[in-house]
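Researcher: Good morning. I'm working through a list of sequences from a screen, and I'd like to move beyond sequence-only analysis. For each chain I'm collecting a predicted structure so we can compare shapes side by side. This is the next one on the list. No need for commentary yet; just the structure.
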Amino acid sequence: MPIILPPITRGQFIKGSLALGGTALMTATGLAAADRKAVELDPNRVALLADTHISADPDRAYPGTKWPGSPVEESEHEEVNMADALAQTAKSVLALNPRPAHLIINGDCALSNGKAAEYKEILRLVEPIRAAGITIHVTIGNHDNRENLWRLLPFLKKEQMGVQAGVLELPHANLVLLDSGRKGILGDEQLAWLAKQLDERADKPALVFGHFNPYPNRGVRPIRGMRDGAALLKLLGEREHARAYLYGHTHEWQHDQRDHLSLINQPAVSYYFGKGHAHGWVDMKLSETSADLELYCINSTHTQHGDRRQIRFKDKKK
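Model: Good morning. Structure tokens for this chain:
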């Protein structure tokens, strides 16, 4: 199973917030008041996040540092506070009605290399989501440390430590969460596991998630991606009910199509690479015929805010 953060009670949330000071308490009180309206949770709606890159310092901001060979100057980037971006995302998710029953963070929760202090901060920031009854699923990215995150979650069983892959069975589709680790390798054992899980569930469309891009990206920053991405794409291409692979890592909002397989590149929640890039999260609604995606930018005036893509569950008749 993947790393799962189950919902917490309102009492647990407020108790935890009391230890964080007045601002957190005000947030908790506001959430408690809003939840008296009993907003419904929709099992066919999933919030999709990637690359939150949370620092141990809640005041840490990303200034868009120039990388070698980039034509973009640092001064051309909008400064983004990572913690604020995730807090705004949580607020946006909780404003939905109905709310998603599930939320996936598709890798790179942490900013540096997965320090315990970074995970403590992200756990604090997602508490309002869990208090609203939403279950959070986490995949591992190259900036993450599985063991450090695991130690902060005492409700998880030690025997489940190791590669974290699993299947989330929803009414209209199965979501398969892969663990591409810190080096972008699935490995033969996990690929065999994926083939088995897909073959046992061929009666329902499958959407597969992993942090790494499966092939070299065509975006602003060259990133090679997953080492065994070709093997993954071959496996998915051979199974018509595998309808999409969704990934982060390159911090861009992109969409490719290979026969029946949609390839969805999720944007970073906060840490974007190029001037003008969208950063935010994706609202996914599942039906019998498709997965409908809508981009929510942190900056609601961004030209891509509200951009929609569709993953069809059945090919059009020729």
